[in-house]
Amino acid sequence: MKLRQSQEFLSVEKKLGIRFKNKALLKKALTHSSAVAEDRGKCNEILEFLGDAVLELIVREFLVRKYPHKSEGELNLLKKRYTSEEALYKIGKTLHLGEFLTMDRGEEITGGRLRHSNISAGFEALIGAIYLDQGLAYTQKYFQRLFLNKRFRLSRDCKSLLNEWAMKNKKAVEYRVVKEEGPPHKKIFNVALYVNGKKFATGKGTSKKNAEQDSARIFLKKVKNRI
């Protein structure tokens, strides 16, 4: 969807639950890099970079206020659950963000509107745009209404749990992509988990990150019984 007319902006804003003062920010937030190959400054990558930092601050403050007695390590694990690609994808999906992204035909026909990374990145860019347009207080309220006040079912961050175990036990953890299957728009990654150079598990996923999480989950289940 390419935003050109005021009516189109109003329709998208209504579905996203926000009204922008600067429509150019909304347009940029919804522009995938494939649509502006010759001028990356017009796509949403910079807003995604900003949105990532804004979300970090919002979530950290929320967790510190909600869980004042938890340790830094516990808060960090919670923070990663709220800001993971999975979490941001789920929020973006509820907003139907994939429908509003501007992308080239090649990206679209290979599943770009459904791709988790595009939707999660688009949501981060949207947060960055809202911050520039409305300020931090408004952005906090918007994100809290969308996510922090709701109960999304999220998987545990097994990679973080494994890293914590590895640090305590002075182990070296490594992930290696061992196989890729399927067409570009439905690719499945196979990632092997090595601990101190020894292979312990192989996980699968629609992205390298998801496959790494799966291999960490398998390891923890078999070796540590911690999921």
What can you see in these coordinates?
The chain is mostly helical. Helices cover 58% and strands 11% of the residues. The chain has a 3-stranded antiparallel sheet with strand order 1-2-3. The longest helix is centred in the N-terminal third of the chain and has 22 residues, at 45-66.
Detail the topology: elements first, then pairings.
Elements: H1 6-16, H2 23-29, H3 45-66, H4 72-83, H5 85-94, H6 97-100, H7 105-109, H8 116-134, H9 136-148, H10 158-168, E1 173-181, E2 188-195, E3 198-205, H11 208-224
Antiparallel strand pairs: 1-2, 2-3
Strand content: 5-15%
Q: Give me the count of strands.
A: 3
Report Rg.
Answer: 19 Å
* pLDDT averaged over residues: 87
Distance between the termini: 41 Å
Q: What is the helix/strand order? A: HHHHHHHHHHEEEH
Largest sheet: 3 strands, antiparallel
Binned, the helix content reads 55-70%
Instruction: Give the helix tally.
Output: 11
Spans of 5+ residues with little confidence (pLDDT < 50)? none
- Class per helix and strand makeup: mainly alpha
Shape: flat
> Widest sheet: strand order?
1-2-3
Characterize this entry briefly.
By secondary structure, the chain is mostly helical. It contains eleven helices and three strands; from the N terminus they run H-H-H-H-H-H-H-H-H-H-E-E-E-H.
Features:
mainly alpha; 227 residues; flat
